[in-house]
Design brief:
524 residues, 2 domains, two-stranded antiparallel sheet, 9 strands
């Protein structure tokens, strides 16, 4: 049986794929940053010993820890990276590491685009509606930025999209094999990130046959038990303990809830534009929130532009909230999209130990499909909204690109300064760590204060927390100015856009703040 794609639709889909690849090609040289270092190191270990993926230690924010302790997920993604690196070394040995990793990620991105496009046909009637939904989703800061980070998140989303597509196709065409394929893809999603198994909640919602519902529950329980035995034996990794570790996130704090609001408003800012362009009856409400929010934050932080940005995120979040109140589910399709959105959102809010934009990726898809269903009845507004989303997404992606790429530049400067002194000691961000460890530099461990002498410090990434109580003399300080005035991180936290533990500023415009500051200090 065919996958329900006509010849005309295949042409449109091919055009969309080509456009997505063109956008991603501009970011092929993006440097390794944030948690990507762990997955790369695991992939290298897999190439040494495929049966012991976590049999190594690494510096984790100043502490030398076993990989099995650092890991919160099975090493499935790292096996993919290991296989990809092995193939590239054989067929294209001179390719740069950055290009190699991003070409491997591009496979997931293309599959995700195809999966989203195919899935959208079940919820959107018009071609323009599906095109708008694809643009809003692909260029949302959450997806576009994460598609360029060496993480499992886009791969997880790809499995989820295809799993849902096949499962719904099976129901519509009454073809059981497609249902089996969807279930297998849903199980594999759990091997990228265990909360991917929430897709079984979506299967249960869609399934009408009671016997198959019970079968889904049995399959899920058996899979969890099998995975516990398999990964514990192979990698010394406990599927259940990893799930239990996120229990520290079950406590809801003001900081966590604020991060949740800020991220949802900042990662999917199109709801604000939706209200301003389409739902004019809420114009005064959203405008009032903007003004009041900007005023409150101006008083609190003495920075009008910071207050304005935060107010925009707040207004976007509440615009989204008002939309959910005003537009309840009118059909079984909308009921499912609401369920899909809520089940992933509640898990992230109630269970996850941190709030990160990348965790929102599975929840953003149904949200965009719901909004796009409403936009189908408008004419010019939806095109303006789509254009604004494209501009915003590219602006944030370029900002994250320049932030990641500042660390290789810093390492080159350190090597020039350190010509007469070896080895190099350092303290800082994961991206900083990755490029320095390639030069055989050594991380400063917080539990070991015996190392005295010169230390390189990425100041914004790890501000002044090395060697407490010891005298430090500043030898060199170098500022790295931004070439693009959009910032994607709170400069005083070790985080880019996709992982800011407190969600203070997903992005902002700033013409004065440098990207980073390199300090070289002498410790006595």
């Amino acid at each position: 049986m065919a996958l329900n794609i006509s010849v005309d639709k295949r042409i449109y889909l091919l055009i969309i794929i080509v456009l997505a690849i063109i956008v991603e090609v501009f970011f092929l040289n993006k440097a390794v940053s944030t948690d990507g270092i762990f997955y790369i190191y695991t992939a290298r270990q897999i190439q040494k010993n495929p049966l012991r993926p976590y049999d190594f230690e690494m510096n984790d924010n100043g502490s030398q820890r076993p990989a099995s302790v650092i890991a919160n997920n099975p090493p499935f993604f790292s096996y993919y990276l290991a296989l990809g690196e092995f193939i590239f070394k054989k067929v294209w040995p001179k390719i740069s590491e950055e290009k190699m990793w991003h070409l491997l990620l591009l496979v997931w991105t293309v599959l995700a685009v195809v999966g989203f496009w195919l899935l959208s046909q079940f919820y959107l009637r018009s071609f323009s509606g599906r095109l708008l939904a694809t643009a809003l989703w692909f260029f949302s800061p959450a997806f576009l930025v994460n598609s360029q980070n060496i993480m499992y998140d886009v791969g997880l989303l790809t499995f989820l999209l295809w799993a849902l597509y096949f499962y719904q196709l099976a129901i519509r065409q009454n073809f059981f094999i497609y249902k089996v394929v969807g279930i297998i893809l849903g199980l594999l999603a759990g091997y990228l990130k265990f909360y991917g198994l929430l897709i079984f909640g979506c299967f249960l919602f869609l399934e009408e046959k009671k016997a198959i519902r019970w079968l889904l529950v049995v399959i899920l329980l058996f899979f969890i038990l099998f995975s516990e035995v398999f990964w514990r034996g192979l990698a010394g990794y406990s599927f259940l303990l990893a799930a239990g570790r996120v229990g520290i996130g079950t406590k809801i704090s003001v900081e966590k809830f604020w991060a949740f609001i800020n991220y949802l408003g900042g990662a999917v800012i199109f709801p604000l534009g939706f209200w301003l362009l389409v739902e004019r009856r809420w114009l005064m409400v959203v405008g009032g929130l903007l003004l009041v929010g900007a005023g409150l934050f101006f008083v609190r932080v003495f920075d009008f532009f910071t207050g304005l940005h935060l107010a925009v995120f707040l207004a976007s979040f509440f615009g989204l909230f008002f939309w959910f109140i005003s537009h309840g589910p009118q059909s079984i399709e909308e009921q499912f999209l609401h369920f899909w959105f809520v089940i992933f959102l509640l898990f992230i809010l109630l269970v996850s130990s941190i709030i990160a934009v990348r965790y929102l990726l599975p929840a953003i898809v149904p949200l965009i499909l719901l909004v796009s269903r409403q936009l189908e009845r408008y004419s010019w507004q939806k095109y303006i909204l789509g254009l604004l989303s494209v501009i915003l997404g590219i602006a944030v992606a370029v900002a994250d690109y320049q932030y990641a790429n500042v660390y290789p530049r810093m390492v080159l400067d350190i090597k020039k300064y350190w010509a007469s002194e070896s080895p190099i000691y350092f303290c800082g961000h994961y991206g900083f760590q990755y490029y320095l460890e390639k030069e055989n530099a050594r991380a400063v461990l917080t539990e070991d204060n015996s190392r005295l002498g010169l230390v390189a410090l990425a100041r914004f990434a790890d501000p002044q927390r090395i060697y407490p109580g010891l005298r430090q003399e500043l030898v060199l300080r170098k500022f790295y100015p931004a070439t693009w005035p959009v910032f994607t991180q709170n400069s005083f936290l070790a985080a880019g856009f996709h992982l800011n533990l407190f969600g203070v500023l997903p992005y902002r415009i700033d013409w004065k703040m440098p990207l980073e500051i390199l300090d070289i200090r002498r410790v006595y």
